[in-house]
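sry for the spam today, last one i promise. C-alpha cells for design, 358 residues
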C-alpha cells in the first residue's frame, strides 16, 4: 500500500514536471569538416513528446560522450550516419516520466541511445540495442562508464583480441582516457607490465600513480618510439591502440615476434578530411614480426556484456580498478563537451549532466 502511494506521488511529480517543460534538442545542421563547431548543430526547442501505445517518455539526466560520435556525424560507419536535422546520436541515462509500455513504469531509471535531447520517446529499443533498467546500486557514471560500452571495450578488446599472458608487456595509447585507463588496470590485474602513452605530465602522473601503469610516455614532449624502446628493449607483446597515426607507427617499430595489435580506435585522425589523411609507415613490421593487427566493434559482443560486467565488477570489488569521470554540466554544452575529447581535456570518462534525477 505504502509502495503504491509513493509511486503515485512520484508519478505526479514527474508527470507535472515533464508536461510544463519544453524539450531542447541539438540537431545536426551540417556534416562537420575538421574539428566540430557549434555551427554544425542547431539548438531546437519544442514541446515535450508524449508516449503513444507501447511507448514511454524518458527525461534524460546524463549523456555519454564518445569519440565514435564524430564518425557518426561524418557519414556511414558501422552504424548509418546521423541524418541532417536529426538529434545527435548519443548514449544516455534517464528517468521514465510517462509510460504506455508494459515493461517500463514511471520512475524507472533506464539506459539507452537517447541522443542529444532532454526528452526521448522509446518503444524499448534504440539504434544500438535494447533500453535497459539500471541494476540497483549502479550509478549513472558506472553504467555509462566502467560497466558500459567504455569498460566493456577495454575488457573484450584486451582479453579477447589482445589476449595477453601473465608477464607480457602491454602498450596502451590514450591511457588516461576512459577506455585506456581501464585497459591499463585490467592488464595489470592479469599480471602484465604496462606502459601507457598520454598527453601531458599531469595525465601521465595519473596513469602511473592512480591507474597503476609501470610507466607512462608523454607523447607531447617525448620521442615515443625511442621511449618505448628504452622501456621495453625486447619489444611489446600487445599494443592496445586508441590513437593511431604517428603513435601507432611508433608502437609498430617496437613490437616483438607474434605481437597482437588491438585496433580499438584511431582518434588522432577522426577530424581529418580526405586530403589530410595519411597512412602508416611501419606496417611491414607486422610481416617482419609475424604479428597480427585486428580491429573490433564492441557492439558485436552484446551477447557477452553480462560476462564482461561481472569481470569488471569483481576487479572493482578487489580494489584493482579505479575509475575517473569528467562530469560537465548543462544541456547547452553538448557540442563543447564532445570537443573536449579531441582537445584532450578529459581525464577518464566524459559525461554531461543534463538534469537531476527526481
Ligand atoms: N572499437 C570499439 O568498439 C570502440 C569502443 C569505444 C571506444 N573506442 C575507441 O577508443 C578510443 C578511446 O575512446 P574513449 O571513449 O575512451 O575516449 P577517451 O580516451 O576518454 O578520450 C579521448 C582521448 O584521446 C586523446 N586524443 C584526442 N586527440 C588526440 C590526438 N590527436 N592525438 C593523440 N591523442 C588524442 C586525448 O587524450 P590525451 O590528452 O592523452 O591526448 C583524449 O582525452 C577512441 O579511439 C574510440 O574511438 C572504440
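last one done:
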Amino acid at each position: 500500500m505504502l509502495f503504491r502511494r509513493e509511486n503515485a506521488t512520484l508519478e505526479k511529480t514527474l508527470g507535472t514536471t515533464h508536461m510544463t517543460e519544453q524539450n531542447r534538442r541539438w540537431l545536426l545542421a551540417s556534416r562537420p569538416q575538421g574539428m566540430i563547431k557549434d555551427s554544425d548543430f542547431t539548438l531546437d526547442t519544442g514541446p515535450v513528446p508524449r508516449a503513444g501505445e507501447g511507448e514511454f517518455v524518458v527525461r534524460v539526466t546524463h549523456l555519454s560522450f564518445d569519440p565514435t560520435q564524430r564518425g557518426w556525424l561524418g557519414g556511414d560507419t558501422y552504424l548509418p550516419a546521423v541524418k541532417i536535422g536529426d538529434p545527435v546520436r548519443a548514449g544516455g541515462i534517464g528517468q521514465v516520466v510517462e509510460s504506455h509500455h508494459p515493461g517500463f513504469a514511471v520512475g524507472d531509471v533506464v539506459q539507452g541511445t537517447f541522443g542529444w535531447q532532454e526528452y526521448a520517446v522509446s518503444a524499448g529499443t534504440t539504434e544500438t540495442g535494447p533500453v535497459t533498467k539500471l541494476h540497483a546500486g549502479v550509478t549513472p557514471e558506472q553504467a555509462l562508464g566502467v560497466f558500459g560500452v567504455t569498460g566493456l571495450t577495454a575488457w573484450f578488446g584486451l582479453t579477447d583480441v589482445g589476449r595477453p599472458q601473465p608477464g607480457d608487456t602491454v602498450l596502451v595509447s590514450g591511457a588516461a582516457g576512459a577506455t585506456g585507463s581501464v585497459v591499463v588496470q585490467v592488464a595489470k590485474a592479469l599480471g602484465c607490465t604496462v606502459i601507457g602513452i598520454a598527453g601531458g605530465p599531469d595525465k601521465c602522473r595519473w596513469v602511473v600513480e592512480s591507474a597503476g601503469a609501470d610507466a607512462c610516455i608523454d607523447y607531447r614532449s617525448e620521442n615515443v618510439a625511442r621511449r618505448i624502446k628504452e622501456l621495453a628493449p625486447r619489444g611489446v607483446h600487445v599494443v592496445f591502440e586508441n590513437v593511431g597515426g604517428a603513435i601507432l607507427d611508433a608502437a609498430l617499430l617496437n613490437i616483438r615476434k607474434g605481437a597482437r595489435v588491438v585496433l580499438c580506435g584511431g582518434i588522432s585522425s577522426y577530424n581529418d578530411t580526405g586530403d589530410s589523411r595519411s597512412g602508416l609507415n611501419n606496417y611491414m613490421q607486422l610481416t617482419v614480426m609475424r604479428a597480427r593487427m585486428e580491429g573490433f566493434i564492441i557492439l558485436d559482443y552484446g551477447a557477452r556484456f553480462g560476462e564482461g560486467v561481472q569481470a569488471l565488477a569483481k576487479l572493482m570489488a578487489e580494489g584493482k580498478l579505479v575509475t575517473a569521470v569528467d562530469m560537465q554540466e548543462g544541456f547547452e554544452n553538448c557540442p563543447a563537451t564532445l570537443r573536449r575529447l579531441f582537445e584532450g581535456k578529459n581525464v577518464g570518462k566524459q559525461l554531461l549532466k543534463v538534469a537531476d534525477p527526481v
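DSSP finds eleven helices and 17 strands in the chain. ok im logging off now
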